[in-house]
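User: I'm putting together notes for a lab meeting next week and I want to include a structural view of one of the chains we've been expressing. I don't have a solved structure, so I'd like a prediction I can at least talk through. The sequence is below, exactly as it appears in our construct file.
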Amino acid sequence: MAHRVDIFIEKGFFTLEQAERYFKAATDMGFQVAAHVEQLSRQGGADLARKFKALSVDHCVNLSDEDIQELSNSSTTSVLLPSADLYLNVDYPPARKLIDQGARVALSTDFNPGSSPSQSLELCSLLARLKMKMTLPEIFSAWTVGAAFALGLEKDRGNLEVGKFADFQVWDKPWSSFFYNFEEIHPRDLYLSGKSVAIS
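Assistant: Thanks for the context. Below is the predicted structure for the 200-residue chain, given as structure tokens.
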């Protein structure tokens, strides 16, 4: 059963006015909302989504300083999709500004055949490190806690805490060595709800 809906606010796609009607209808029906915003140009989508208490705003490349400040004071997670920026050869999101001002961020691939034909979270993370100046702890937090908040799953997933599902991976290398050669990153074990489900 669906619990959230998404919309892409951009020139040539959905306008702010259309998105506002969409958000209003969706929230009236009990859906949580999210939006892909400010990817190719600033349209004001981040501000609109925040006002509707969106779980997440994705892309966030063309944010104003005011957008960043408002997001840092909200519950909305900024989901950064650097592989899309790589394939489109555009600027990267202002991750450093977002994090330094206290905004919650997540990382994802935006996997799609048009603008991001990659499912590699490792590639996204390497770009976050090299192009967006995120630290390794910030990247791991974006993978886990940030992602859980972006999906509305933070109450029982995202970190190891009493009362939450024990979803985690086990690695045979120190975390400080991640992304030196991202193509060789493979977990040793994968656990879901505390049970081993995959062993490499």
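A couple of points you could mention at the meeting. Helices lie at 16-28, 45-51, 65-72, 82-88, 95-100, 121-130, 136-150. The CA atoms of residues 61 and 94 lie 7 Å apart.

User: Perfect, that's what I needed.
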